[in-house]
Structure formats: structure tokens, C-alpha cells
Design goal:
Layout lengths: L7 H15 L1 H55 L1
């Protein structure tokens, strides 16, 4: 038994029929297009992660700056 009750021989027969219908050249093109799409998707995910990291650091700097200014103004009023 294979996947969901389908034996390996049944899978091979289905694969043979698909190759006969579409041909190896068309299947190769579909495979390369699918691989290119997956690579592009992964690259865009990595680009989004690198874009979000500097933005979060920038937000931390913005939050740190007002607190620093606040301390300076408190020490100025205390003198």
C-alpha cells in the first residue's frame, strides 16, 4: 500500500499516462516554472524579513530619543 491505498504500480501507470499526454518537454517547462516561482517567493520572504528588522530598530531609537530628552529636561529644571 502506498498513499491512501494506491500502490506503487498504480502511481507509475498514472505517471506514464501523464508523460504520454503532456510530453517530457512540457513537464520540464512546468517544473522549471514552478521552481522559479518558489525561489521568487522565498526571496521575497527574506527581503521582507530584512526590511522589517531595520524598521523595528528605528522604532526603538524613536522610543529611546524622547525618554533621553525627557531626562535632560528634568535635570535642567532641577538646577
Amino acid at each position: 500500500m502506498g498513499l491512501g491505498g494506491i500502490s506503487i504500480w498504480q502511481l507509475l501507470i498514472i505517471l506514464l499516462i501523464v508523460v504520454m499526454i503532456f510530453g517530457t518537454k512540457r513537464l520540464k517547462n512546468v517544473g522549471s516554472d514552478l521552481g522559479g516561482a518558489i525561489k521568487g517567493f522565498k526571496k521575497s520572504l527574506q527581503d521582507d524579513e530584512t526590511d522589517s528588522k531595520p524598521g523595528s530598530e528605528l522604532e526603538n531609537d524613536k522610543n529611546a530619543a524622547p525618554s533621553h530628552e525627557k531626562k535632560t529636561s528634568d535635570s535642567d529644571t532641577g538646577n
